[in-house]
Design brief:
15% strand
Amino acid sequence: MKASLVVPTLNEASSIRHVLRLFRGAATEANRTVFAGDPLEWEILVVDGASTDGTAAIAAEEGARVIIERRRGYGRAYRTGFAEVKGEVVATADGDATYPVETVPGLVKRLLDERIDFLTGNRMAYLDRRSMTTEHRIGNRALNLLLGVAYHAWMKELPNGRLEDSQSGFWVFRRSVLDHVRLTQEGMAFSEELKLEAVLRGLRVVEVPIRYGERWGPPKLSSWRDGLRNMFFLIDKRLDVARERKRGTLAPFARKDDRAA
């Protein structure tokens, strides 16, 4: 089976080699053990935002296929990467070493064994105070609360009845999910949008606890700006859903060409 790891980067020269080697080691070990009968054929796609510190070159040295995406935005990077994936299963992680990429093969095994469509990581489960500033923790909890209140009618279908971490960017999912979601966001709100779309479309979504590490290098988020944009997105999206429900249907499934738009 083919599988794809998509990693968006922007000036991650200090950490990208570590991230890719850690993942490769875990994938190789998993192919010797849990996937021994049917090893996974991994491709690594690094979607680089025209880094100026050599990130793209380092990623290429480590065997990744590098796609330069000069259009800015976290969501833009993922939409570009998702349009290129060849794997039946897709996994994601950031290039700053915060996400536990060594756990990806095990999560793929769970996805397949339990017939799950979409797994998303919950950073709040074991959160170390050094991994997230107080400002970011407060913002995340506020957004999680808003999402839980605004979308409670759909969240109750989840195993725990809610999403604990609406902002996580650590996912493992079947590529077929991309044919059933409508993705429009270019920025950080993409994280919310992808999870919400998966839930709204009736896909089987499971949230798993993960350990979230301390970032290598300076943060790129703007707590207040990105937090407010995410909040406005959640409200606008909820109004769109209400309009669709009034008409009797939710927004239509995505077409393949939507993913590359």
